[in-house]
Amino acid sequence: MNVASHLAASSPVATNTTPNTMKTKLTLASLLLCAFALNAATVLDCGDTSPLSHRQTCLPVSKRGHARALQTINPQLAVKAIIGEAAGEGDTGMLAVAAAIRNRGTLRGVYGVKNPIAQNPSATLLKRAERAWALSRTIDITRGATHWENVRAFGEPYWAKSLTVTTNISNHRFYK
């Protein structure tokens, strides 16, 4: 049985599946199902995550940034960065920032590591950020983004003019 067939058979949220694409609701459970169905062998890009579109297309993406991140980013610092950048963005927003950090391959230039909220997070927030970091190893909902900005709070950044917008998730806009 191929992955799409497995998802269609085992998940009530799977629809319109083909061997190369699968449509699912963006929930933590469906993202986990995608990762486990693929035995974490493939990094996934789960498509449009705008608030108006709760349907996702999961496709394999390059592992280059992810492999580099696994070797160079301290996991405890990554979790702090996720908390500092996306504590108020929900699980999906935290997963998106985690994926972009992995794609980036470094924490250089990531303010969240030094954000005061990241220095003493609640146990619940810490656990959510750790889960986002773990999931980002196999799931990329940012379409390969390496940069992001909270555009609702800070507007369009000057440095983004030469980058391509990949998606909007919660208050963040993602770029590559």
Highlighted features:
176 residues, alpha+beta, 2 domains, three-stranded antiparallel β-sheet, 43% helix, disordered N terminus
Please give the count of helices. Answer: 8
Q: Measure the end-to-end span.
A: 35 Å
Shape: globular
Mean pLDDT: 74
Q: Total strand count, please?
A: 8
Main sheet overview = 3 strands, mixed
Count of the domains: 2
* Strand line-up of the largest beta sheet: 4-2-5
Helical fraction equals 40-55%
Low-confidence stretches: 1-25, 32-62
Rg, Cα atoms, Å: 16 Å
Regarding quaternary structure, how should these chains be classified?
Answer: single chain
Q: What's the helix and strand layout?
A:
Layout: H1 3-10, E1 23-25, H2 28-37, E2 44-45, E3 55-57, E4 59-60, H3 64-72, H4 75-86, H5 90-104, H6 116-119, H7 123-135, E5 139-140, E6 147-150, H8 151-154, E7 165-169, E8 172-175
